[in-house]
Design a protein that fits this description.
193 residues, mainly alpha, Tetracycline Repressor, domain 2, 10 helices, 0% strand, flat
């Protein structure tokens, strides 16, 4: 029976080596390979758990918003994403890293899992934005997630890059996720109403 990985956020998902993952889970590296194809599959399992939490929270937060109030669901979407930083960090490397060194079946399982969880968000969003279609709401959520993938690493750079971005001449390159993601989500939602 598979034990779910329990990873620390100190190194971030990119820095989580299989030896560290195995030690944290109380396994040897060889035992991890008995249950998982690769380090990436271990992180995908963690992503599955985190995505369920994100989807549930986003569904509840959107459901609590008044119907027809466009800024409210945009705020709900952005604040819920940002309240789940581990999930955001994993989303940011999903296609570039986590879908490497795993089978097509593992990728398909992840995509099906994401579809099922995202359907909950889409239903909630469509109920709050009268006149929209589930397809349009799905597009807006997918595009918000895609923008998050690009914004996340820029908002969470490594220390040397953070020091450079702190300089006045690079102020225009800084990303303020709490402001920028909400603004992007609102623009996307505006395009479908």
């Amino acid at each position: 029976m598979r034990r779910r990985p329990n990873c620390s956020d100190a190194e971030g998902p990119s820095g989580a080596g299989l030896n560290a993952i195995a030690a944290k889970a109380g396994f040897t590296k060889s035992n991890v390979y008995r249950y998982f194809e690769s380090r990436e599959q271990v992180l995908l399992e963690l992503f599955h758990d985190e995505f369920v939490k994100l989807a549930g929270a986003m569904e509840a937060t959107i459901d609590a918003q008044p119907s027809g109030d466009l800024p409210a669901p945009a705020e709900a979407i952005s604040t819920t994403f940002l309240a789940h930083p581990r999930c955001c960090a994993l989303i940011a490397i999903l296609t570039s890293t986590l879908e490497q060194n795993v089978s097509e079946d593992t990728i398909a399982t992840t995509k099906l899992h994401m579809n099922a969880q995202t359907a909950r968000i889409i239903t909630a969003l469509a109920a709050r934005l009268p006149g929209t279609t589930p397809a349009d709401c799905g597009w807006a959520i997918a595009m918000t997630g895609t923008l998050l993938v690009g914004m996340w690493p820029n908002a969470n750079p490594p220390p040397a890059a953070r020091a450079v971005l702190a300089r006045p001449e690079f102020k225009h390159l800084r990303v303020d996720l709490s402001h920028d993601l909400k603004r992007a989500a609102q623009a996307l939602l505006q395009s479908i109403v």
